[in-house]
Specification:
The chain has three helices and no strands. The protein is mainly α.
Amino acid sequence: MQNEKPTHEYRTLAEIQLRKDRLSDEIAQHSEKIATLWAMLFAKQENSTKGEHMATLIANGVTAVDTFLLVRKLMKNYGGIFKFLKSKKTK
């Protein structure tokens, strides 16, 4: 495996406890980082400028047109989704 950490032989309970404490600290740090990133992901964005608003509208419009063209192409090539499903059920 690529992400394997080197193993260590523990000879005393104190060594095991020390390793456990270090891992607990690492887990706490990672948890804080994940919580921060999660909060940033769902944080409400500030009001955008008119230019950013227009760019978003254009991007969404292009996505909608692209989706429409894809569905139209699939319907034309495969004769519709419902015909495809009916032909599978009759087999």
